[in-house]
Amino acid sequence: MVENQDQVSSEIMMTIPLRKARLVRMDRRADTAIQIIIEHVAKHAKTTREKIWVDNRVNEMIWSRGRKKVPSSLQLKIIKLQEGTTEVLLP
Q: Structural domains in the chain?
């Protein structure tokens, strides 16, 4: 989490579609949704997958209706820090 606003390089709001998670087996949908979020953020924030940190509340939001019923899209706040790390948070 960001403790100091001096560390923030940029901050954007992004709606991420999770419809592709419906194409995989029912018992893998929530896991796939997390991977879709990481890939989408890596592409648009121009960073590597290893430098992306997903907040626990985002994970709880995906798993809130269970493993099989993931939301079709999520609106998330993406914070890119100066040291290169990217954080994915709920707004």
A: 5-89 (3.10.440.10)
